[in-house]
Amino acid sequence: MSDILLKTQDLCKSFKGQKAVNHVSLSIPENTVYGLLGPNGAGKSTLLKMLTGMLRPTSGRILFQGEDWTRRHLSQIGALIESPPLYENLTARENLKVRATLLGLPDSRMDEVLQVVGLSHTGKKRSGQFSMGMKQRLGIAIALLNHPKLLILDEPSNGLDPIGIQEQREMIRSLTKQGITVILSSHVLSEVEQVADHIGIMAGGVLAYQSVILPGESLESLFMQIVSEHQGEGR
């Protein structure tokens, strides 16, 4: 049984008295891909923003490696939430150099992450000229710079063509072999089905289901059943 890298206990976030995340208790095993599913407005992004310190929980706990989460744990967490944070007039390597300088990392680490995401040969091409898939991969490279134990990806396949999705899937699967745990938020069920080991399904702000992915299980049927049972919760 894998050790648990990250847990939340009864985590809540309210906006103007309305709970966007309602008593969510996640359990993320080490060296796995955890697929976080849910329809738009289910609370996925709000939950991930709490895990990365972008939002402060209203109540509940976040535990990282058995310790209460503090901002110092951000040094072990990489994240790509919403659009990649790129300077479009800079090359891939120059974008990484900005971040590596802030983190005090050697240039060799830039070369390592470019290799991981398949952008080693982009040369002097500015990132503003990259395809959507290349921009997403560069965003992931930036998130990987600090050798994170946990990588959080929020809807990373948005806007990708089938080739980009396939490349991203292979890259994500390779990360667990490097000792990186991945939380992958998505509404594309087929993608999660092919890459995740565990899934959590959110609906109406609650974590309505959490389990390993079972062989032969129809994720679409399970998702529709869980979501329909919890429609209206959190409102």
From TrEMBL:
* One of the record's GO molecular function terms: ATP binding
> Which chain regions cross the lipid bilayer?
none
Q: Indicate whether Nucleus appears among the record's keywords.
A: no
**Pfam family of this protein, just one?**
ABC_tran
Q: Which residues form the ABC transporter domain?
A: 6-229
Q: Which UniProt keywords apply?
A: ATP-binding, Nucleotide-binding, Transport
Q: Which family does it belong to?
A: Belongs to the ABC transporter superfamily.
The identity of this protein, by name, is Antibiotic ABC transporter ATP-binding protein
